[in-house]
Design a protein that fits this description.
Layout lengths: L1 E5 L4 H12 L4 E5 L4 H9 L7 E4 L2 E4 L3 H11 L2
Parallel strand pairs: 1-2
Antiparallel strand pairs: 1-3, 3-4
InterPro entries: GlrX_NrdH (IPR011909), Glutaredoxin (IPR002109), Grx-like_ET (IPR051548), Thioredoxin-like_sf (IPR036249)
Protein name: Glutaredoxin-like protein NrdH
GO molecular function: electron transfer activity
């Protein structure tokens, strides 16, 4: 299960979602502007950039095509 925590009008968020779709990975999107608890949780963990992607045991922020590809390979294996 992949969850993308995004913000409106976020270039990196949109790129992440496009890449996941291109790789055939289903994901759930949660807007951080509408979920203050999630926003505070990620800030407390040191994430200062959107999107925050949670994929199983891995969590990262920003557009990371290398990690997106790795997740897709794991899911589609």
């Amino acid at each position: 299960m992949v969850t993308v925590y995004s913000k409106s009008h976020c270039v990196q968020c949109n790129a992440t979602k496009r890449q996941l779709a291109k790789l055939g990975v289903e994901y759930t999107e949660i807007n951080l502007e509408q979920d203050a608890d999630a926003l505070e949780k990620f800030k407390a963990q040191g994430f200062m950039q959107a999107p925050v992607v949670v994929a199983g045991e891995e969590t990262w922020s920003g557009y990371r095509p290398d990690l997106l590809k790795k997740v897709a390979q794991t899911i589609n294996a």
